[in-house]
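How it folds:
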Amino acid sequence: MLRSYLFVPANRPDRYDKALASRAGAVIVDLEDAVAPADKQAARTELLAWLAPGKPVIVRINAPATEWFDGDLDVCSQPGVTAVVVPKAETGEQIARVAAASARPVLPLVETARGLWSVLEIAKAPGVSRLLFGSLDYQADLDTTDDELLLARSQLVLASRVAGIGAPVDGVTQAVDDAELLRRDCERARRLGFGAKICIHPRQVDIVNRCFAPTGDEVTWAQRVVDAFAASRGNATLLEGKMIDGPVLTKAQAILDEVAASAR
């Protein structure tokens, strides 16, 4: 289960292998925001030299409207690149173009008002496996704060579900040394329906992985629900004084399925 997505700057090839050695669900090599314009060509060359089938990474390319987009897109068809993050995603046509050119799954990064307005179109575009929330850029675009992004986050969750893709990935927590803030951010995201979170430092990975994994209490509850339904031959029944029916069973089975998938 991919619960954590760790960013590493493309102009720091010394960090690529270290990122892969972390417990992150996936590593994203960033050719966009982490790299200054003057260094983008060199960073792309460094990444090309390092890429290999045994070192799977996701690549965040520069936005479609930039001069670096086409060159970055060429990198994404190379062995070792497992998916492509498209920043400033605003139309389904942008995403379809990337999917066709790279022949890789696409992770659109929704980080503008225009992107959120078109989020269902983006989520339904060919090749999309999951949406990412670029919360910092979104705050800048709307001149707001992270505390005011409940509606935006809920829309990403809803669009993902309607499009039939994976639960979205929440944006970054900037304070890399504040474990309690990171836990609160993760817990909020999980309650809203997110399935993972972007990390900007390896020390965030373990906390994120734990927060998005089912807890022991949740697994115990899920097993008791499944057992109760089996005993009632699929009929609605009572468990600890609470009525449980089909939707409750669906939730419980999803928890057990996730645990089983993580163990494989």
Summary: Residues 4-212 form a domain with the TIM Barrel fold (CATH 3.20.20.60). The two ends are 10 Å apart (CA to CA).
